[in-house]
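Ubiquitin carboxyl-terminal hydrolase, Euphydryas editha. Tokens?
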Amino acid sequence: MESAGDWCLIESDPGVFTQLIKTFGVKGVQVEEMWSMDEGEGIFDNLRPVHGLIFLFKYLQHEEPPLPVVKDNRLEKIYFAKQVINNACATQAVISLLLNCNHPDVDIGPELTKLKEFSMSFDPKMRGLTLSNSQTIRSAHNSMSNQTLFEFDQKMPAKDEDAYHFVGYIPIDGRLYELDGLRDGPIDHGPIAPKQDWLDVVQPIIMKRINVYTEGEIHFNLMALISDRKMIYERQIEELMRQTQMLGMETDETEKEIRRLKMLIEYEDAKMLRYRQEMARRRHNYLPFIITLLKILAEEKKLMPLYEKAKERALKKGQKKLKV
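Tokens:
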């Protein structure tokens, strides 16, 4: 794999991924975090349609793929790009899902449309090189990074440092595929029956993967690529209003349902506002404020007493841990 170049690490967060997708120019989709994968809980019921899943896990070197990778002519229809740049796996995972998504809700926009049309005839490595050399995609990716207060030399990474990786799961032409840019091709997890929900197929596969790790390992994250919820709710309101006009009357149930949908729209608006605020905080440079605050505390002779109190609390906390 080539050097990291100027691709930064980005946080595994639904707000970050939703903002990233919007920065690409994609419309009609958002990302939601999944808190459970237990079967029978109906965890996807309020999120449908689900177009794909993004799974973050602790990367184990030399881990063999669960099934043989696809290298046949299916690659002419499946957009699979091999990852050739470090730190790009988050963007690569979500772009792989978007470029394989065929749903009327999803508008991938002009930038990703051009990328797909230009590189679809390439082999996976050339697709990966095309993606990584896109200035627009790289700029969008790097715009999601946290503001760094200090620069550290990354030439000598710690040997024991954990590495994390994103992969995507998506149904394509009646089969479930895993899109992992570190492989040589998509992993085919088998057919999806005509009346079977693809999410019922993928759940045990992800659970099996999680169970490979040691007990107590919690460094996993699962996010769903879904249709824009506000768009879905507005569409449902329009349908209710249309039915009301056809019937010539509005029932109490219809009025109640419209109020509920409007509340859900307000919730989505508030959530998107929160995402934008959180992104602004991530990008903001707090260092000048911190330095000014420390100077003021030092001038008023409050800095050292605060330092001593913090040191004392840290020592007490350490002692409690040792007793336990």
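The beta strands are 29-34, 50-58, 164-172, 175-179, 187-191, 221-227.
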